[in-house]
Amino acid sequence: MEKAARMRKRGQINVVLKKQPEQDALLSHQSNVLEKPEHHAFKKIQRELDEFIGLKNIKDFMKEIYAWLYLNQRREEAGLKAGKQVLHMVFRGNPGTGKTTVARLIAKMFREMGVLEKGHLIEAERADLVGEYIGHTAQKTRELVQKAIGGILFVDEAYSLARGGEKDFGKEAIDTLVKSMEDQQHSFVLILAGYPKEMDRFLKLNPGLPSRFPMKVTFPNYTVNELLQMAKKMVKERDYQLDEKGEETLKNLLSHAKEEQEDNFSNGRFIRNLLERAIRAQAVRLLEEDNYGKTELMTLKSVDFKKAAFK
Ligand SMILES: Nc1ncnc2c1ncn2[C@@H]1O[C@H](COP(=O)(O)OP(=O)(O)OP(=O)(O)O)[C@@H](O)[C@H]1O
Ligand SMILES: [Mg+2]
């Protein structure tokens, strides 16, 4: 028998020991609702997100913005006030935690929902925005915004714009971005991304910014187990496999690198690079062994990862 719910009534606590059928119905109703054709945009994104390891808070966040946008459409249809939708966001996360990938998915979802016309992603960093002489920066930034119209402008390491202080042209880029956000409010979405601590400091130093970015999303570092799961998935996708010792070595390498590199540890990117080096190490090993059996061709061993780690 399961303890399905606790109910508090006039100070009493009622422990309900049986799973209630209504509750079951409610849960299955909830999951079925999203199967309706009108929710195809969300389903499509959800299927892609499901491929990702971890990222529970991001998955919830995506559902929340979908629900909010959808409800606002319905409210408008019903002649009710629809809240002003400011969709600019801040992404806080260490390298390789999935920021760019998720931004791309959001762009896609917004296009499917008719929020953005094109749904493309323009990735930019300081050098793409900041010019070399007076007036150049505003022009460069405006051109980039122009390219992003109908989609998302994703500015990585956004704080680098504030790097040089008052006299630096980076400040002009920020001002131009803010102005474009206001002038073309509904035609593009701006995402500022970067390391958590630096992003927080940047937003604090620019008091006009936080209120313009109502959505703040944190991308946590992956645990060793999540990283291992991710690695296994990538191995499988590439038609390879790990033998027992290979997996053990990989796990050790991951926890060691994560500890040693701390905030610089590049999460998903680290795995991808390590795997590619291990695959090349395996190729050399098999060539030298003159060994091309199907199992051999597929198997990444401990030595391959050890070699990969020291490159
Ligand atoms: N949860 C995950 N599951 C599977 N693969 C992931 C996950 N997170 C990241 N990756 C993979 O890791 C790599 C890096 O991800 P992405 O480029 O989105 O991260 P990022 O946060 O933008 O990194 P950077 O700060 O280095 O630009 C990609 O190849 C991506 O597919
Ligand atoms: Mg990125």
Automatic annotation (TrEMBL):
SUPFAM superfamilies: P-loop containing nucleoside triphosphate hydrolases (SSF52540). Residues 85-219 form the AAA+ ATPase domain. Keywords: ATP-binding, Nucleotide-binding. The keyword Nucleotide-binding applies. It comes from the Bacteria. InterPro entries: AAA+_ATPase, AAA_lid_6, ATPase_AAA_core, CbxX/CfxQ, CbxX/CfxQ_RuBisCO_ESX, P-loop_NTPase, Spore_V_K. Gene3D superfamilies: 1.10.8.60, P-loop containing nucleotide triphosphate hydrolases. Belongs to the CbxX/CfxQ family. This is Stage V sporulation protein K. It comes from Evansella alkalicola.
